[in-house]
Amino acid sequence: MFYVVRLLLIIVLTMILATLIILAGLIDPHGKVVYRINTLWTRAILRAGGVKLKLAGLEKLDPSRPYIFMANHQSNLDIPILLQSLARFQLRWIAKKELLWVPFFGWAMWAAKHITVDRANPINAAKNLRRAKERIAAGISVVVFPEGTRSRDGRLQRFKKGGFLLAVQTNTEIVPVTIKGSRNLLPPGAWRLQSGTVEVVVDQPVSIAGYRPGNLRLLSDRVRAAIAGHLGQSSSANAAVESAQSQLDDRSLEKQQI
Q: Domains of the chain, with CATH numbers?
């Protein structure tokens, strides 16, 4: 019975705050006001769900400058968790456009001016990544899940290169962020939210000095190793396959202009 009451509370909060976010989005061209409402929404959801956060490493960041935050992805809880963990920053996600069709959640993404990418259309994808450059130039940080989707088994997947190319082309430091425990509370495919504690570890910002589109694999490996270390996983799993694929990706990315 307690869980049912908690679930109903989350649904009611979602409907009310998401509606406010959508209405505000009609008159908020940059989504900055909407984003603050979004932060209240995610805080309410986590509290109603009994989710507590344990944060480490925030002192390493300068809240006056934008970063590209790269985090592992294990649960639908990861987005509200990051919003609360990095509350001092204005954040915008790079996410697949299909999320815009999710009731309330997707509509709120549109209102907050998050960056959606059509993975099936490289031309549109490049256009949307240009929007990410504009966000960074305006002092807004960008969040990327470099795995591209949620891990089904909790292990890190191969990192995609788009976010690293964005970092190099905008001269923006990357901050590795490790989320530990979200999968235990809401695994992929599950609907029942468990209460508990999630640990979020923020690493030292990674300078992109010396990196270019042709050696993104080295930058990707460095960020992946930082996250894998906090998860207690080997950063060299499937190294031969990942290295070969990364080299192909790098050659392809050298030809792209975002």
A: 52-253 (3.40.1130.10)
For tokens 């649904």, what's the residue? Answer: 11
CB environment 14-34: b (16+ within 10 A), e (fewer): beebbebbbebbeebeebebb
What is the pTM (predicted TM-score) of this model?
0.82
Q: What residues pair up with 115 in beta bridges, in sequence order?
A: 94
Render pLDDT for 108-167 as a digit per residue (tens, 0 to 9). Answer: 778 878 887 776 776 676 777 788 888 888 889 999 999 988 998 889 999 999 899 999
Per-residue pLDDT tens digits for 38-62: 888 888 889 888 999 999 999 999 9
Averaged pLDDT for residues 159-181: 94
| HEC per residue, the chain | CHHHHHHHHHHHHHHHHHHHHHHHHCCCCCCHHHHHHHHHHHHHHHHHCCEEEEEECHHHCCCCCCCEEEECCCCCCHHHHHHHHCCCCCEEEEEEHHHHHCCCHHHHHHHCCCEEECCCCHHHHHHHHHHHHHHHHCCCEEEECCCCCCCCCCCCCCCCCHHHHHHHHHCCCEEEEEEECHHHHCCCCCCCCCCEEEEEEECCCECCCCCCHHHHHHHHHHHHHHHHHHHCCCCCCCHHHHHHHHHHHHHHHCCCCC
107 burial (CB, 10 Å; 0-12 / 13-18 / 19+) is: middle
The model's confidence at residue 2, banded by pLDDT at 50, 70 and 90, is low
pLDDT digits (tens, 9 = 90+) for 24-34: 777 777 677 78
